[in-house]
Specification:
Layout: H1 3-22, H2 29-33, H3 41-55, H4 65-80, H5 82-91, H6 95-100, H7 114-119, H8 132-136, H9 141-151, E1 157-162, H10 167-183, E2 189-194, H11 199-204, E3 212-217, E4 220-224, H12 231-241, E5 247-250, H13 255-259, E6 267-272, H14 280-288, E7 293-298, H15 301-306, E8 314-319, E9 328-332, H16 337-345, H17 358-364, E10 376-382, H18 389-401, E11 409-415, H19 420-424, E12 439-444, E13 449-454, H20 465-479, E14 488-491, H21 503-520, H22 524-567, E15 583-585, H23 588-596, E16 603-609, H24 614-625, E17 634-640, H25 641-655, H26 666-669, E18 673-677, E19 682-686, H27 740-749, E20 755-756
Parallel strand pairs: 1-2, 5-7, 6-7, 10-11, 15-17, 16-17
Antiparallel strand pairs: 1-3, 3-4, 6-8, 8-9, 10-12, 12-13, 13-14, 16-18, 18-19, 19-20
Helix pairs in contact: 3-4, 4-5
Length: 766
């Protein structure tokens, strides 16, 4: 027979076992509730209430009361739900029960196919690799929310996700068994979840693969990313995820400070052991009792000698307000966790505890609706400042000498400034009572209903101390009688947890837990992708900061250059003009760059002046072209008429319709501005006597007789301008550019007249 056939037979056998397990009979809920199958909902509720009162663990002395109470609740959940009741009546099973029952029949050691697999070299240990116990420990989403999640506040839970047809799950089964054998005696619970049947729970707990191990601590999820094949790594994982600084390192230098820190309303526990590293069992115990016990790990030979601790044994000492000697101790070679819990549970409160949280109130003053079994809580109302500590000490001394047993009356105190709302609710309406230093006796009938009575007068530590204690004794003797009841009734809210962190502390913890949970829920590929994105963002931000730094340095250098240029300005030019606008000198060396090599769309604005008019013309020219300094298509220059008169005359001659030469007066050229387009070979001209029309002349210009051209007056600049349009008056040099700004506006609007030439003549060298 081939190997594939063997596997097929094995799978078929598993399916048959699953069908057998699914049809297994369940306990009869009707029989548990003592009703018939046709009972109405009213009859079901009546029977349920009667059984709950009878079998409640707090009201019944039967040792099996708790199991019986759970059975009653489960039976009521089935028959009170119409859908579950219908499924049970038709099929004898419910969905929740199916998940909790083993889906496979137990595989015995002598498996019928074991020899068959062994013949072909496939040696399977069916007892160790049997995953039936996964089904026995399986939980549902409902059980997780109602049972596992609340219990995780006291004990860690390891949750293992698996499926039926998972070969890796079968491989991890022996390791899970060893893990259970090691951790469960220490107080770590182990449960499983069938991921196929509970997919939503798997998403909630951020599992990344199957199989997957998850640690649950006080509602916080921590995913174990490695394979479940190393027990030591899993133990270290559990140890590292327990709350930070839950156990304090104690030596001879800080032992007194540690033991006297019971103001936080917790007893002190010192752990001694031969090893230098605290055992996991003590960490888990410290987590379980963290609200009532503060543990310290002692690694000091002097303290071992002081408290006479055996060097070869583990020892735990418990201290209350009296720090001179321990109130309880246990020493063993290997202290079992149940023994440790039993000793701590019997001594987990101070001599005079404080009502600092709702959990402590429920533990010290439990609910009891039956008047015959009522338990009184004698509460002294104080305030947190140290001025009230003498009253607390005298109340504690009275308690130590009191004949009243803790089963009947529990003596506690409360801080009014921290639990004001709770205390004020115990003041009868219409009465004025100052609660401080007064005693109130309460009896909790249920979670919110309280019966109470205030003791007349205040707690006195002076001469009237005996009278105060005597009055308290009389009231207690009267109220402890089963026939007596407390006169007042109130409805109170839960106490505030005084040890809870503030808003910022809680926010920090939540953010830290979110980051840690997110990290635990991500795979390696996801982490690398996120790191890559973060690295890219940081690189871009760094480059941005670096570029901003370079820009700042450049701006500082420019400012320095401006200041230096302003100080060295000896040419008389107004210093308020910044050197961002460069005005070049138009001469033979710059001619090609300013005219012939201009790119398409670029122009050069040239001011014609002489040495005498330079100081009067450059400042207004600079001011007029300043708004256009950022235009990259413009260049600005000035030309001395003495150097460029020949070139200027030739340019004018090329644009005239007649070819005869004429004379130019250099004085009339001063203040003229040329806009040169070197690529398209045309120019526009500005002169204070040349007034252009608003619209561009489209008709060709008729040539004028040379005799009508007045070269001396400068009428040649307009070529066709009417002599009546020119102003023959005297014009000062400083006013030659008054209309230049308006001309620039028309220039960029395209309404100025363009004079075209065939080529640009050479500029004279000197």
């Amino acid at each position: 027979m081939k190997w594939g056939a063997h596997i097929w037979i094995y799978h078929v056998s598993i399916v048959l076992c699953a069908l057998w397990g699914a049809t297994a009979a369940l306990d009869n809920p009707y029989k548990i509730l003592g009703i018939h199958k046709r009972a109405s909902q009213q009859e079901i509720r009546k029977a349920y209430k009667q059984l709950v009162k009878e079998w409640h663990p707090d009201k019944s002395n039967d040792p099996n009361a708790e199991e019986r109470f759970v059975e009653i609740k489960q039976a009521y959940e089935i028959v009170s739900d119409p859908e579950k009741r219908r499924r049970y009546d038709n099929y004898g099973i419910t969905e929740d029960d199916f998940y909790n029952k083993p889906s496979f029949a137990p595989l015995h050691t002598n498996h019928p196919f074991e020899d068959l697999f062994a013949q072909h070299g496939a040696h399977f240990n069916f007892q160790m690799n049997d995953i039936t116990f996964f089904h026995k420990l399986s939980i549902t989403t409902r059980q997780y929310d109602k049972t596992i999640l609340p219990k995780s506040r006291r004990a860690p839970y390891l949750i293992f996700f698996y499926t039926d047809w998972c070969f890796q799950c079968i491989q991890t089964a022996p390791y899970c068994r060893k893990l259970i054998d090691y951790l469960e005696p220490l107080g770590v619970n182990f449960v499983t979840v069938h991921s196929t049947r509970e997919p939503k729970l798997g998403k909630r707990l951020s599992i990344h693969s199957i199989p997957c191990l998850v640690l649950l601590l006080d509602g916080d999820i921590f995913v174990y990313k490695e394979t479940v094949t190393s027990i030591q790594r899993i133990i270290e994982f559990v140890r590292n995820k327990l709350p930070y600084k839950m156990v304090t390192a104690v030596n001879e230098g800080n032992v007194e400070q540690f033991l006297n820190g019971w103001e936080d309303n917790r007893i002190r526990g010192l752990v001694f052991q031969p090893m230098n590293t605290i055992r996991l069992r003590y960490l888990i115990t410290a987590y379980y009792f963290r609200h009532t016990v503060a543990f310290g790990f002692v690694d000091s030979h002097e303290l071992k000698v002081k408290y006479q601790v055996p060097h070869d044994m583990d020892t735990v000492l418990l201290f209350n307000e009296n720090t001179s000697y321990p109130m309880a101790s246990v020493s063993m070679k290997d202290i079992p966790t149940p023994t440790l819990h039993q000793v701590i549970s019997a001594n987990n409160y101070l001599i005079l505890p404080r009502l600092s949280s709702q959990e402590i109130l429920e533990s010290l003053c439990p609910e009891e609706w039956n008047k015959l079994k009522k338990k009184l809580c004698v509460v002294l109302v104080l305030s947190s400042p140290s001025v009230y500590h003498p009253y607390r000490d005298s109340y504690k001394n009275f308690l130590q000498q009191s004949p009243y047993k803790a089963e009947k009356a529990r003596f506690v105190y409360i801080y009014y400034d921290k639990q004001k709302e709770f205390v004020d609710s115990l003041v009868p309406k219409g009465e004025i009572i100052q609660p401080l230093l007064k005693i109130v006796i309460i009896w909790r009938r249920d979670a919110s209903q309280v019966m109470y009575e205030w003791l007349p007068g205040k707690w006195n530590t002076g001469k009237n101390f005996t009278e105060t204690t005597s009055a308290l004794g009389k009231v207690l003797n009267r109220l402890m009688k089963s026939s007596e009841s407390l006169p007042n009734e109130a409805f109170v809210k839960d106490l505030i947890d005084e040890n809870d962190k503030g808003i910022l502390g809680r926010l920090y913890v939540k953010v830290f837990q979110f980051v840690e949970k997110t990290y635990d829920g991500m795979t390696t590929d996801q982490i690398l992708a996120i790191l890559s994105i973060l690295g890219t963002i940081l690189f871009i931000v760094g480059i941005g900061y670096f570029m901003a730094y370079l820009v700042r340095i450049e701006e500082e250098n420019i400012q320095k250059q401006k200041a230096k240029s302003s100080n060295n300005n000896n040419n008389g030019i107004n210093s308020k003009y910044q050197p961002e606008l460069q005005i070049h000198e138009f001469r033979s060396e710059t001619f090609n760059a300013l005219v012939r090599l201009l790119k398409p769309g670029c122009r050069t604005i040239v001011l014609i002046l002489d040495m005498e008019s330079r100081q009067q013309l450059i400042p207004p020219f600079h001011k007029a072209v300043w708004p256009y300094r950022k235009n990259k298509t413009l260049m600005f220059a000035y030309m001395y008429v003495e150097r460029g008169l020949k070139w200027y005359k030739e340019v004018l001659q090329l644009s005239l319709p007649f070819k005869k030469e004429f004379n130019i007066n250099p004085r009339n050229c001063v203040g003229t501005v040329l806009s040169i387009n070197g690529h398209r070979k045309y120019y526009c001209i500005y002169h204070f006597k040349h007034t252009e029309k608003k619209k561009k002349i489209k008709e060709p210009v008729e040539p004028l007789p040379l005799s009508e051209v007045d070269c001396e007056s400068g009428a040649f600049i307009g070529f066709d301008s009417d002599s009546s349009e020119s102003d023959d008056g005297v014009q000062f040099q400083g006013a030659l550019l008054n209309g230049f700004s308006n001309w620039l506006d028309r220039l960029f609007e395209g309404t100025t007249q363009r004079f075209r030439i065939n080529y640009w003549p050479e500029f004279p060298i000197k």
